[in-house]
Amino acid sequence: MQGVTTWVKNPRNGRARGPAAVARAWVEILVRPSRFFRTGVAPGDQAPGLVFAVCVAVAFAGGRFLFEPATIPTAFGGPAVSASVSLLFVAVFIAPAGLHLTAALQTVLLILFVRDRAGISETVQILAYASAPCALAGAPIPELRAACGLYGAGLLLLGIREVHETSTLRAAAAAAAPATVVFGYGFRGLDAIAALLTRWYII
């Protein structure tokens, strides 16, 4: 309880920074998501959310490189150098750009479905923290990857409902497309679900 309260105790001065704060937020969003979204998202305080999203994206990409070396780009020399450069590219360019582009899409959809809503900053933070489960999705285990994607989509829906104070139905309508983009394609959730359905002879 104290951890989340401290995390947003003084939004004007920003939330706690550093590895311990990121780790605490990761645990809180996974085990107490409703409470976290109610108390852990502050207007105008995007920086910790951006750092969180970058950490998740790097963990996901690093997991893929570790368990599936064939996914490491080969344009930068040997595997170690290529992996390092690729992770840096993910951290500096792909994760921030992906987060803000998806937030722009989510904002447009919120305008369509939710009349009275919170600001763009809060939307960015919701998307960032909803990605928490996908830090574990780098392992090539379809069950794990599918579970991470579905849990992330559920967190996005929950976050929109709690922070933007809307109904579950409106939150689901607003979150459907961004969730598909981020968790279905970005974090490979749809591929994992398709692999499981094929294994179970459903498709």
Short description:
The protein has 203 residues and is mostly helical. It contains nine helices and no strands.
Write the layout of secondary structure elements.
Elements: H1 2-7, H2 19-31, H3 33-39, H4 47-67, H5 79-113, H6 120-130, H7 142-163, H8 168-186, H9 189-199
Helix pairs in contact: 2-3, 3-7, 4-5, 4-6, 5-6, 5-8, 6-7, 7-8, 7-9
Transmembrane segments: 47-67, 87-114
Organism: Halobaculum gomorrense
Domain Yip1: 28-183
Q: Mean pLDDT across all residues, rounded?
A: 90
Structural class: mainly alpha
Helix content: over 70%
How many E strands?
0
End-to-end C-alpha gap = 45 Å
Provide the domain count: 1
Task: Tell me the number of helical segments per DSSP (H or I, 4 or more residues long).
Answer: 9
Order of helices and strands: HHHHHHHHH
| Poorly predicted spans | 1-14
Strand content: under 5%
Largest sheet: none
**Over all CA atoms, what is the radius of gyration?**
17 Å
The outline comes out as globular
Subcellular location: Membrane
Membrane topology: Multi-pass membrane protein
Keywords: Membrane, Transmembrane, Transmembrane helix
Main location: membrane
Task: Please describe what this structure looks like.
It is a multi-pass membrane protein. The chain crosses the membrane at residues 47-67, 87-114. This is Yip1 domain-containing protein. This protein is mainly α. The protein has one domain (2-199). 71% of the residues lie in helices and 0% in strands. α6 (120-130) runs antiparallel to α7 (142-163). The longest helix has 35 residues, at 79-113. The chain is globular and about 50 Å long. The model is unreliable at 1-14 (pLDDT under 50).
